[in-house]
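Reviewer 2 asked us to include a model.

Predict the structure of this chain.
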Amino acid sequence: MLMTEPRSDFAADLTLPRHPKAAGQARRVVSAMDLEDQDLADRGHLLVTEAVANAIEHASGTHLQVVLARDERTGGLFAAVFDAEPARPVQRHVPAEGLAESGRGMALIRTLSEDWGCLAVGEGKWVWFHLVPTASAPLPP
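Predicted model (C-alpha cells):
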C-alpha cells in the first residue's frame, strides 16, 4: 500500500520539536482520538512512541511532523512521522533475550501494524503505519 490520504473523522497534523517530550505529545493526541478498541489504542500509543523516538534519535533538524488520523473505513489508525533524514530506517534484528535498551522500534512497527512503509520526500522521509481494530485484523499466515 502506498501512503494515501485516509478518510477520517479525526485528524491531527503536528509540528513538534525534535525533543524526547515529542513522543509524549504525540501519544496524548492518540489518546484524544478516543479509539474504541483497547488493543488498537495500546498499539497506537506504542508505535507512535517508537516512530517519534526513532526520528528524534536518528534524524537531524529541529522539528519533526506527525500526522494522525482515524480511518473511517476500518475504524483504525493511520500515523506518519516526517523527519529531515532521507535514509531509510534500519531494521536490526535484536534477540528477544537481548538486554539492549534500543533497536526494536522498526521491528515493532513491522510486527504490530497491518501495513507500514517509508517514503523519501526531498531531504527527508515519512515513516508511516496503519493499524486496524483487533476484530478486523487479518489472521497471520
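The CA atoms of residues 8 and 71 lie 5 Å apart. DSSP finds three helices and five strands in the chain. We have added this to the supplementary material.
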